[in-house]
Each structure stands twice: as C-alpha cells, then as structure tokens.
Write a structure and sequence with these properties.
Pfam families: ETR1_N (PF25487), HATPase_c (PF02518), HisKA_2 (PF07568), PAS_3 (PF08447). By secondary structure, this protein is of the alpha+beta class. The protein has helices at 3-8, 16-19, 24-54, 61-83, 90-111, 114-119, 124-189, 191-195, 198-207, 227-233, 237-240, 255-267, 315-337, 356-361, 377-383, 391-403, 465-522, 527-552, 561-576, 594-614, 666-677; strands at residues 211-215, 222-225, 272-280, 286-296, 306-313, 340-346, 351-354, 372-373, 408-416, 435-447, 454-463, 558-560, 580-587, 591-593, 620-630, 634-641, 681-685, 691-697. It contains 21 helices and 18 strands. The chain has a six-stranded antiparallel beta sheet with strand order 8-7-6-11-10-9, sandwiched between helices. The protein has a five-stranded antiparallel beta sheet with strand order 2-1-5-4-3, with helices on both faces. It has a five-stranded mixed beta sheet with strand order 13-15-16-18-17, with helices on one face.
Length: 703
C-alpha cells in the first residue's frame, strides 16, 4: 500500500456516509454543517491575523499567530470530514487532527505562564476605590475653601459691627457716667431738696432700661433694685431688696477680684469703677454685666452710706465676642489642618501680606504677617521659587486679577521645597520630592467705587501635592489596566471558544457512538439484545443532549434543565413508544450544572424507558413527568405511568424486587446508583400504575 492510498483510500475501510446509512438528509446535514463550520474557522484566523498585523503595540503577538494556526487546522479537519463522507481518507484526516492536537497543546502550554502575570495586575475595583477616595479628598478641599471664604466674610462683618457697637456703647457709657456722677454730686449736696422729688426719682429708677442698684457699703446688703436688674437675674425686685447681699449675686470665681476693686473704691483710691463680671441667675446660670459704681459720700462720715451702681446687660455682646474669637480660632485651625496658606493683596497700594504657613513654604523669603511691596526684592525672590514651566501661567493669572478681567482666578503650579536644593537640577516633570504642588485661588474682594478697578484681593494656597501625585499614578495605572483588560478579554474569548469546541466534539463523538449502536441493533435478531442496545442508545443520547445544552449556554457551565428534560422525554417516546402512548410534562425552571444534569438525565431516561417496556402491553397510556420545588431547598421529581404496575406487568407472577421498590437488574442498579450520586431519596408506588417520587437537594451552582 502506497502512502497516497494509505492517506486517501485505505483498503478495507468504508466512507463515513456508510455510518449514516447513506440517508441523504443526514449526509447533507453533516456536509453542510461541516462546510459552514470550516468556512467560519477559516474566517476567524484571517480576522485575528489582520488584527495582529494592524496592532503593532501588542505585547504577546505570538499568541495571535498560535491561534491563527490552531483555528486553521480545526477548520481543515471539518473540510476533511466532508470528504470522508464519500472517500475513506481517514489517514489524511488523522494527520490533520494530529497537527491540530500539537498546535492545541502548544497553545495551551504557552497560555498558562501568562495567567500569573494577568492575575498580578490591579483590579478595576481597586482603581475605582482609589478614584473615589481622590474625588472625596477634592470635594473636602473645595468644601473647606468655601467654608473659609464664608467664615472670613462673616468674621469681617462681625468685626466691623462689633467695633461700631463698642464705640457706641463706650460713648453712651461715658455720657451716662458723666451724667451719673453729676447727678450723685447734686443729690449729696441737696439731699433735702431731692426728698420732694423722691417719687419722680423712683419712677425714673424703676423705668430705666439698664439695671440700677443701691447698696449699703457697710453691710453689702441691697437697699433697692429696679425691675431691669431683677429681670436680668430672674428675680422679682421685692425678692432682692433689703434681703440679699451684693456679693451673693456675683459668680463665685469673680467675687475675689470684685472685692479688691470695691475696696479701692471705699478707700478713695478711685472715685468710679467700671467692671465686666458675671452674675448668677436664679436658675444658677451665669450672665455677663458691665457695672459702673460710685459712692454717695456724706461730709464728716467715716464710711459712705450708699453705693449706686448701674448694671448693663452685656451677655449677648460678650457671647458674640467669644464666638468671634472661637470662629477666628476655628478658621486658623481649619487653614492649618487643610494645609491652606492665606495671601492678601492691596492692589491699590501694590502691597502683599502672607500668613506664617506661606512664609514657611518660601523658606522665609516672604515676611510673615506684615505688608511688603509687590515690586520689592522679597516678591521678586519668591518668583524664583516657582517652577520655570509654571511661572508664566501664574503671572498671567495675576494680570487677570490686577486688571479686573476675572473675579476669580485659579492656577496650579509647583514651588520648590524649603529644604530642597536651590542649585540642583530641576525636575520639569513634577515627580521629584523637590517640588510642592499648589492650587492658588484668588478673588477680588474690593473695587474702587468710581473707576471700578480692583483695590483688594484675597488668595488661598492649597497644598495639592498628594492629589497631583495620585493623578499621575492613576493615569499610569489606567493605561496599564487598559492593556490588561484587552489581554484578559481576548483570553476569555479564546477560553469560551475552546470550551464550546470541547462540548461540540464530545457531542459529535456521542452521536457517532449512537450511530454505531443503531447500526449494530439493526443487525441483531435477538429481541432482548436489540432492546438492550436501544436502552444503551437512550443513555448515550441523554449524555449528548447535556453537552449540547452546555454548548448553547451563555456561561458554558449551567443551563435550564426544563427544556432539556422536555426534549429528552420526547425523544425517548418517539424512538421506542407506540402511537397510543403520550407524554404529560410539567417541569419547573431550574438552573443546573454538568454534575447534576447528567445523573438526572440518565435517571429520567431509565424510568421512562422502564415504563415504555413494561407498562403498556396494549400500546396506549400516558407517562407523566413532573418537577417542582419543595420546602427547605429541595426538588421533587415524579415519573409515573397509568399502565400495568411494573412489578407484575400483567404477565404472570410479580418479578423479584429489591428493598425500596427497585427492580432487580441493570435498570434498577442504575436507578439506585444515580439517586445515591445525587444525594437524594426515591420512593416507588405501584397503585394504578408505577410512580417514582425522587426527592433531590437543590443543585448549588456558582453565580
């Protein structure tokens, strides 16, 4: 035999069409399917080759060439399958399959080392978390800047209002003190003359808007208080007059200092004393008051008989001043905590002012918290600290602010660190530790009312070095991730393609076995042997149908078993049942995998086949197939018929039965083994036919 005969027409072998009984429908179905698959296999590598040729930046081009060769070889095997339908060129087909096997092994062996490299790359979730964290940092910095601007405006407004109110209060107090001193002097000089006007004085005393108090300086007891003073402390005037000591109304911590000042007044060291101190309200809370006190002296008396005091309620003003100080403290802490620097510019006079943090950034080049000229040497030296590539952008932003072309200007530039090397090589990329990234936001806060030119501007410097570094790292990681995602996508597509090919080949091999069994059964004359082979054919068909379902599954791992059981039962009925036998199928949807589908398919095959063989001697009846979920995560499968009970079959005595209702023989052994493989239980009943109730655990499939 020559090599050409061995390859193209080996003697003693028949074409593949013989296996298909030369049925035209099957012959042309196989030929057409293989032709379409072969043409598709030739188209795919051409597309891959064109893609690899156009993408010069691919890191693993050899993977594409391997897949081109492998898929071309696969396509050639399908073309040769068409030829073997008529020509038994199994030698040539085997050579091509051997080449395909070598290319498959080489491709798989060279793909495995790439897996650790792909797995070591960062995931999209990690990059998303980094991006989200960066976004939150930026939002927090922007909120801090907005709060800083609002707080500064409130501080300026509160400061101006407080200065105005203090000036007004001081003027009022000075005038009141002057009037009070004059009135007290007149009252001491003309005590008898004022007796007639006591009613008028009492009315004025009670109606005063500020608190008024008369105290006996010898005993410290209150002699008279007006409504305003009593109301300030939460008392009724009658509760205080003649029964309460002056010192008992003071806050405990302020009594010592007030006693010393009162002693100076009694000794004549001072004639009037003005103090701000805390009083204790009736409910125990403090209230701030400004006390202006003087003594009414009587000539010849060793001790003065009366002390007159005016008490002004300044609790609101004091709390406002305290809140202002707290606001200033919070503003300073916020600026320090947020790494902010403050920069003030008097554009009308050409002067600048910076806080300590900005001065520290410049290494002391700019003086802290003092005004200096923008045209002076300090400002010029500061410009040298800015990165050369960023100086023009910052200067342009300053020009927009000075000319009033923009109300708000924001620029970002790099500044040399104070501890860096001034004479060192500049890192124009901004990646060196020598530079600090600043976001400089400037806004016009005052303009000339006539010319409307800017006269004052405020700036905030935010250290954004970490953000700039993170953005650069994110850009690099994004580029790397895009490459990895492209490679992983291509690898997944190839994996799906190979897995579908495996399912396809397994199904084809099972179909070949099915054809061989059918041919062998056709040549047998023994009905029992033929029936055994047909039972084997049903089992092989069930296995092939499982792989067909997996091949069409989107994830290549799971599928809905409801249409599978429907098609399986229908095929078994069409292959071996009389026309009078019908099916009643009601199967709930259930997602299963290969490990669950194969045993269940074989189990249903055995039970339906057993009913067809023994239950319908008259050729009529119904086979029922049910599947529904049970409580606590179980599935109930019912296979029943309404024919003759399986144990007797209407043909003599009952056949031997094992415990649990199993029929002895291969079928019963398979049923028992398959139920055990599925971790289930089966119960057989023989009332008005044969019924098998199979309780199985719900299959666990990966999501």
């Amino acid at each position: 035999m020559t090599i050409s005969d061995w390859l193209l027409d080996p003697s003693g072998l028949t074409p593949h069409g013989f296996c298909l009984s030369w049925l035209p429908g099957l012959i042309w179905l196989h030929a057409g399917s293989d032709a379409i698959i072969g043409l598709s296999y030739f188209s795919i590598p051409l597309t891959l080759a064109w893609f690899v040729r156009r993408r010069d930046d691919l890191a693993y081009r050899w993977v594409g060439h391997l897949f081109v060769a492998f898929i071309l070889a696969c396509g050639l095997t399908h073309i040769l399958s068409i030829m073997t339908l008529w020509v038994p060129a199994y030698g040539a087909e085997g050579v091509v399959k051997g080449m395909t096997a070598l290319l498959s092994v080489a491709t798989a062996a060279m793909l495995w080392p790439l897996v650790p490299r792909v797995l070591a790359l960062p995931t999209p979730a990690q990059l998303s978390r980094l991006n989200a964290q960066l976004s939150r940092t930026i939002e927090e910095q922007e909120r801090t800047a907005a709060l800083l601007r609002d707080s500064e405006a409130k501080v300026l407004a509160a400061n101006s209002d407080l200065e105005r109110r203090v000036a007004e209060r001081t003027a009022e107090l000075s005038a009141a003190n002057t009037r009070l001193t004059a009135a007290l002097a007149e009252r001491a000089a003309a005590l008898d003359a004022l007796a007639s006007s006591e009613a008028e004085y009492r009315a004025s005393f009670e109606a005063a808007a500020v608190g008024k108090v008369q105290v006996n300086p010898q005993t410290g007891r209150l002699l008279r208080v007006n409504t305003a003073f009593a109301g300030m402390l939460g008392y009724d005037p009658a509760e205080l007059a003649t029964r309460v000591d002056w010192s008992s109304l003071l806050w405990a911590e302020d009594r010592t200092a007030e006693g010393l000042e009162f002693a100076r007044l009694l000794s004549g060291e001072i004639s009037v004393y003005v103090r701000e101190l805390r009083f204790r309200r009736r409910n125990g809370s403090p209230v701030w008051g400004r006390v202006s006190a003087t003594l009414v002296r009587k000539a010849g008396a060793r001790l003065p008989p009366l002390m007159l005091a005016v008490v002004e309620d300044i609790d609101t003003m004091h709390k406002t001043a305290l809140a202002l100080r707290e606001s200033e403290t919070r503003l300073r802490l916020a600026a320090e905590g947020a790494k902010l620097g403050i920069w003030e510019m008097d554009l009308a006079r050409g002067l600048c002012w910076v806080d300590r943090r900005t001065a520290e950034v410049t290494g002391g080049t700019l003086p802290a918290e003092t005004w200096f000229p923008m045209a002076g040497p300090e400002y010029a030296a500061w410009a040298d600290w800015i990165h050369p590539d960023d100086r023009e952008e910052r200067a342009g932003g300053l020009r927009l602010l000075q000319t009033g072309a923009a109300e708000l200007v924001q620029v970002q530039y790099r500044v040399r660190r104070a501890d860096g090397d001034p004479g060192g090589e500049l890192d124009t990329g901004g990646g060196s530790d020598q530079w600090i990234w600043f976001s400089h936001r400037s806004a016009i806060v005052a303009r000339d009312p006539v010319t409307w030119t800017p006269t004052r501007a405020t700036s905030v410097l935010i250290d954004v070095t970490e953000r700039a570094t993170a953005e650069a790292a994110l850009r690099e990681a994004k580029a790397d991730l895009e490459v990895v995602v492209a490679e992983r996508t291509a690898a997944l597509k190839q994996r799906d393609l190979l897995l579908r090919e495996v399912y396809h080949r397994v199904k084809n091999n099972l179909q070949v076995i099915d054809g061989l069994v059918m041919m062998q059964a056709a040549q047998l004359t023994d009905p029992n042997a033929r029936q055994a082979l047909m039972g084997l054919r049903s089992r092989v068909y069930a296995l092939g149908l499982v792989h067909q379902q997996l091949m069409a599954s989107p994830d290549l791992q799971t599928f809905d078993i409801a249409p599978f059981l429907d098609e399986l039962a229908t095929n078994i009925l069409q292959a071996g049942a009389d026309e009078g036998v019908t099916l009643d199928i009601d199967v709930c949807p259930l997602t299963v995998n290969l490990d669950f589908a194969i045993p269940l398919g074989l189990l249903v095959t055995e039970l339906i086949t057993n009913s067809l063989k023994h239950a319908f001697p008259n050729g009529t009846g119904t086979i029922t197939l049910r599947m529904r979920p049970q409580g606590e995560g179980g599935v109930l499968v019912v296979v029943a018929d309404d024919g003759v009970p399986s144990l007797s079959n209407g043909h003599g005595p009952a056949m031997a039965e094992e415990p649990g209702g199993y029929r002895r023989g291969l079928g019963g052994t398979l049923v028992k083994g398959l139920v055990a493989q599925l971790d289930g239980t089966i119960a057989m009943r023989f009332d008005k036919g044969t019924r098998a109730d199979i309780l199985l655990p719900t299959p666990m499939v990966a999501s």
